[in-house]
Amino acid sequence: MRKALSWVLFGFLLVSGFSWTGDVSAASNSPKGLKEEITKVKQEKSTSFSKDEKKKIESHLKQKLAKDPISIKTLGDYYENEPNDNFNQANILHMEDVVYGTFDVDDVDMYRMKINNPIELVVAGSSQPGVDLGYLVANASGEWLDPDLYDYYDGVEIQVYTIPEGTYYIGAIDMNGGGTEGMYALSAFNTKYIERLSGKDRYATAIEIAEYGWPEGTDNVVLATGSTFPDALAGAPLAFQLDAPILLTPKTKLDSRVRDLIVDFGVKKVTILGGTGAVSAKVENELRDKMGLEVRRLKGKNRYETAAAISETLLPTHQAVVAYGGNFPDALSIAPYAAMYGLPIFLTEKNELSKATKDAMFSYTKTYVVGGTGAISENVKKQLPSPTRLKGKDRYETSISITKELNLPTRGAFLATGEGFADALTGSVLAAKFGEPTILTKKSSLPTSTKKFFIEENTTFYTILGGNGAVGPGVENDIMGLE
What we know:
By secondary structure, the chain is an alpha/beta fold. It folds into two domains: 34-191, Sandwich (Jelly Rolls); 196-480, no CATH class. 29% of the residues lie in helices and 25% in strands. The strands form five sheets. A six-stranded mixed sheet has the order 1-3-10-5-8-7, with helices on one face. A four-stranded mixed sheet has the order 2-4-9-6. A four-stranded parallel sheet has the order 11-22-20-21.
């Protein structure tokens, strides 16, 4: 489950009743010596973080802990699935989720996690009266690890481990011996959590994004060419309104992987963005005639008219976005915000307001002009109703400026390359679904201004769109190095 702002119970709970198990491998030995190791840790470890150590995780904990510690707010919560008494029986625990359980007499509960990147792992737990919860992390060989830090925060026990990628286990017991009705909760998370959605190419990345954001399928998809950006720039608000992912295809032939996904999703209607010069009639005919789908095409004589055509399908609003139609970064940086609030995205030339956009402006009382005067001139801006310019020194700072000026939440952020349009486009609807901005980055490293922004905003969750060819591992390293 993704980025669940979940946290600890306590008082009487209504649990979901949903159990989660999976294939487990690695260590086969039983969890021997757990109680002794826990006792040693509690005796030997300092129960207070230094000021600097506490600062690293305090903000994350504040976000996860409800003001009332008796309550729980969670999107990803599971109840333990017995038997889970040894390493081979361990239940799967996803990062950021909460698992609830009880202890029989001399019971041990085991949970398995897969860590994909070197991280600072935080494991936190709490229990109802009568249960003295104890727990430790073990590696794939079944060896209990000594936590780097150990503390309590508002009644929640916290352990911090600095670990490389790999498979890990949490072993939990009642230090009182078990056999009571009391419940416990455990959660594991990273003070910086990086998730990457990627495929072999832009078409496969769009599919990964769709499968992640719409795991149960959807009735609608929006289809755009994967070759060029103009017709798709204005598509995010429409896709969000339809609760539809944006998929990409080559111009002359429906990508077979996209076809398979459409079938798997149970799609009934496809909206094509752009004319036959973007997505051919052959693709449209295959969707309609061979696959039996309802197909709608939104198009104009050019990118400006296509954007206007898309705007006509949106629910009425008095605000609109105007972006430069000659390039993609500015339009895609504001796309999540426009999608969330149902604002149409219109396109214009730098020095002349496009006719289609000019004709549409009578319906709006306020506009957001995206980009500096190098993208949209002051002359064009003056022709727009009540314009507010959102800009930075470059495309990277413009994406930050949009986030700041429009007060988008920054607990989490989507990252996409500023050098290509595809991943930011298909990821824009998913970013809107999670209420997060899209921040553009260089391929090999975070721009200096972006590093400063993430530090100032104390951003915790990062979703990278695209593979290493789009956003390289250097960006991940920069994220993990932010202090």
